[in-house]
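dumping this here before i forget
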Amino acid sequence: MQYENGKIGGVISLYTSSDPHLAEIVNQPLYRFLYVMHGTIVVNVNYLDITIAEGEVLVLTDLHDTVLKSVDGSFAVLSFNSSFYCIYGNDHEVSCSGVLFHGTSHQHKLKLTADTVDALNYLINALQREFAEKDNLREEVLRIMLKHFIIICTRIARAQIGVDVRTEQGFDLVRQFYVLVDKHFKEKKQVQNYAELLHKSPKTLTNQFAEYDLPSPIQIIHQRIASEAKLLLSRTDKSASEIAYALGYDDLSSFSRFFKKMSSKSITDFKKEVEASRMGNIAQSKG
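structure:
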């Protein structure tokens, strides 16, 4: 089931494991929630196999190349794009930017409680009914239900990180940092650059991330650059030199050293791994 606003390009969709085209749907370059209701599924995300069990939700962005490997149960995929609901422009409504969604290859796997399982099941059923409606109110109702789904998942993610009322203000600084890195990573590569934008000291930023046992600010910056590099290497025909320039590197050698440090493999070896993975997936789908 999918709704699309042709005027603005907004898309929201909800599919379950009974859909014959689910393998394609799982890998759409959208914001995605993979919610397993029964059993387990295995997906390959950025060339790493991840098992999602019953009562778990995997949160993905367009930076995650995702291949459905196996299904032993039932699950749903709720997807949307920024034109349907902008998580940055509407952060005051759902507070999910920098929590559920940020520009690194890291993905959140949420473990639901019995209450949140009930809540998400209710929303999945309500969404299915609303997709079937044909009146001009459908889009806004779908958007409201999507916001409710996002808020539930945001609360779970915050609880898993350890955010509560006492530490909420400090965590907002972490979220702001993630959002700024996502906007400026190509030209700003030092923690000091972001500390100035946030009117904080680099030490304050580092301490704040350590409080929540998160990667350090410089690691976040490097992860964002590496994620973009992998995306460009795997999805485009750009040369390594073109990608290095696009990511703000003056020469290929410094970019190559950075990439190998971050991925533990050379650019050439990474591209070979991507191609081998694609061939394996094609063979699996034909089999």
